[in-house]
Design a protein that fits this description.
It holds the Pfam family Glycos_transf_2. It is built from 7 helices and 10 strands. The protein is α/β, with parallel strands linked by helices. The strands form 2 sheets. An 8-stranded mixed β-sheet has the order 1-9-6-8-5-2-3-4, with helices on both faces. Strands 7-10 form a two-stranded parallel sheet.
């Protein structure tokens, strides 16, 4: 699978009718390893805490952690490499030429060795302790498992009313615009897991940072399970969001809508 978005023609996929369900039981883990993809940029104050908490959460399961860093000026990649040099379950990929969260995640997918891939932010806004529950969704027959802020038990902590309104509006707009996102309560989540075999043959052309939305639009899948979680504001470091990111998001929606109409 190529992870480079350049010189690529996007392919529209029309999968069969699909459903989204909230995971309410504890299905038996069906086996298979977990590759945790952690994209980073200027996260030296967070990366060790994130990796350590991921390792602790998955200690009783086969796993690896793939840190994909965009050559951070604060040398996040070096901090992670030096800290985990003696742990073969942690690998650090330093991208010196490519940039962007979406393509970093795709690079992580390409590097993954296990049957299932999970994407988690390095700023601890996604709780690593929930990784086993996301993995359990595959035992329940899911193709994609989404950490959801917008189902019972989920939520957002520390946001202003304005940010909540903007986020909710973006979610509703996404569900109205992209057909494959309509059954999903939180299609803009950055905390999700996917069967790696699902990625084979998918033609990604991502922009911005909403890789789950791209995946829902172009990859064949039958069943999505949503796991509630509470999104917490970052404790350390600076947010990467800007007005330009919102513009890119609207462009991405427009592109995905056109592709779905083809």
């Amino acid at each position: 699978m190529s992870t480079e978005p350049t010189d690529r023609q996007a392919t529209s996929v029309r999968p069969p009718e699909r459903t989204s369900e909230v995971l309410e039981t504890d299905p038996e883990w069906e086996g298979g390893g977990l590759s945790v993809v952690v994209p980073t940029y200027n996260e030296r104050t967070n990366v060790r805490r994130t990796v350590d908490r991921c390792r602790d959460a998955l200690d009783d399961r086969p796993f690896e952690i793939v840190v994909v860093d965009d050559d951070s000026p604060d040398e996040t990649w070096r901090v992670a490499r030096d800290q985990y040099d003696d742990d073969d379950r942690v690998r650090v990929v330093r991208r010196q030429h490519d940039r962007g969260l979406a393509t970093a995640v795709l690079r992580g997918f390409d590097e993954a060795r296990h049957e299932y891939c999970v994407v988690i932010d390095a700023d601890l806004q996604h709780p690593p302790e929930l990784l086993p529950e996301l993995a359990d969704g595959f035992g329940d027959g899911a193709d994609i498992v989404v950490g959801s802020r917008h189902v019972d038990g989920g939520g957002i902590d520390g946001w202003s009313v304005y940010r909540r309104v903007v986020s909710r509006t973006a979610t509703l707009l996404t569900r109205a615009t992209v057909p494959n996102a309509r059954p999903i309560h939180d299609p803009l989540s950055g905390f999700f897991a996917v069967r790696r075999e699902l990625l084979a043959g998918c033609e990604f052309a991502p922009t911005g940072y909403k890789i789950l939305l791209e995946l829902l639009a172009v990859c064949e899948h039958d069943r999505v399970v949503e796991v509630p979680y509470v999104f917490h504001e970052r404790e350390r470091g600076e947010s990467k969001l800007s007005g330009q990111e919102y513009i890119e998001f609207l462009r991405h929606l427009y592109t995905l809508r056109r592709r779905s109409d083809c």
